[in-house]
Design goal:
With about 120 residues, the chain is mostly helical. The chain is built from 5 helices and no strands.
Length: about 120
């Protein structure tokens, strides 16, 4: 049986992936990949890192959920998802995290997509 912590992490992970279904398809693919890598990368994190990790990802979930609900009457491509980072938050980042953030910025703002993503039209 999973511990309460493992259940909480798994629930957060699954909820974020569900919310990504409401993003434009290219952002969904990028977001899904990033979330999976980050959660994998932090499997063996220290208690202090886990606390910060969960706080930030829970904040992301809450922000995304609010934006998804606000975008419901609109086309997903016409809505701006995300939030600006304050200088205070940026100063807490390690050099590696700044590099990851920059790579994410470059990937998310590319004029031409890295790969062609198509909606799955088959019913499950």
């Amino acid at each position: 049986m999973a511990t309460p912590h493992v259940s909480r992490v798994r629930s957060l992970y699954k909820r974020i992936l569900v919310l990504h279904r409401f993003l434009p398809i290219d952002l969904r693919a990028l977001g899904d990949q990033y979330v999976k890598e980050e959660f994998r990368r932090h499997r063996a994190a220290s208690a202090a890192e886990v606390t910060s990790f969960m706080t930030e990802w829970e904040s992301y979930r809450d922000t995304l959920q609010t934006q998804v609900l606000q975008s419901a009457p609109h086309q997903p491509d016409s809505v701006r998802f995300g939030a600006d980072l304050s200088e205070g938050k940026l100063s807490d980042f390690q050099d590696e995290q700044i590099g990851q953030l920059y790579e994410l910025l470059l990937e998310s703002t590319k004029p031409s997509r890295q790969f062609d993503i198509q909606e799955d039209s088959s019913t499950k």
